[in-house]
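Hi everyone, sorry if this is the wrong subforum. Our group has a chain we'd like a structural model of before ordering constructs, and none of us has done structure prediction before. Sequence below.
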Amino acid sequence: MSTHLLPFLTQARAPLTREVLAVNELGQTDTVSIPAERALTVYVDKRELVTLMTLGAQPESD
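Answer:
Right subforum, don't worry. Here is the predicted structure as tokens:
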């Protein structure tokens, strides 16, 4: 198979969590880390095929 037809994967990464302010039942605020889910759209021949949700650790491998 010709190598120019194989997909090229990068080492793209994104943080797995993001910090948000949360308010507890006592009204106190605290910073907590939550999963940072992101949309990943796959294109084939410049046409959108599907949009997936990913945590971003290795989005091209998901």
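For your construct planning: The CA atoms of residues 11 and 58 lie 8 Å apart. The beta strands are 17-23, 29-35, 38-44, 47-54.
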